[in-house]
Request: fold
Amino acid sequence: MPDEIKKPAIPVPAATVLLIRDGDEGIEVFMVERNSRMHFASALVFPGGLVDPEDTDDALISRCDGVAGLSKDEAALRIAGVRETFEECGVVLARHTSVETVLEGDEAAAFYDKYHVALNKGDVGWGEIIEKEDLILCCDQMAYFAHWITPEGRPKRFDTHFFLARMPRRQHAVHDGNESVQSVWVRPPSAVEAGEKGERNVMFPTRLNLELLEVNATVEAAMEVTAGREIVTVLPRSKEVDGDAHRIMTIPEAAGYGSGRFLVNGDKISPIVD
Reply:
């Protein structure tokens, strides 16, 4: 009997948020280290996760700034980004209907204390929380940054949309102690260097997006540049060379990562200049 031909895994929609702030030496981004039992175990990543069915709910979409003109799927990605930012690092990208600014200070802390554990345990739904507290999700505070799809041939594939978001004033980002076990505010070049030295597990998409972010001197510049940049979908293609010792990763040059081909050798990632 001939071997059964396996169909490629279908990429699952996911949202990832790069929380950024201005530090003393330049722009910083919040990153978490995944639990060893999770997908991308022990990797240093940006907070994020899968789109939930509830994220497509019309009632929840109606409680969002910045989604006018978007499809339901596009709106759901942004809702997922806001939700995951709260679930994974306790940051609330939402406002009361009566005000124009994101929750901050004691109000944000009280929201965290009231709902963070319950939401992560599944005792209450995100939509239920937002309606009960009469909040508006500030999807307009996120800028669409990048779009990556896991290469074909992988058993699990993700259709991941990356967003930039300014860290709200007087809020504090913390890892949840469940999906993520450590967290750090870090300069993008420092995270890249830690990956090259083998001190951190920094995956190929994470590395390139850190480098894309680091060219911006300030949060304001990053948000402005990102808002005006065309997003090109990246579906990397991998070719093994030198007896599997190295890989050449190919991506669209138009995606804006400085090259279309990269040599990957362990923790080292180098652009190939033709």
User: Anything to note?
Assistant: The CA atoms of residues 183 and 218 lie 21 Å apart. The two ends are 46 Å apart (CA to CA). The chain is about 25% helix and 30% strand. The longest helix spans residues 72-89.
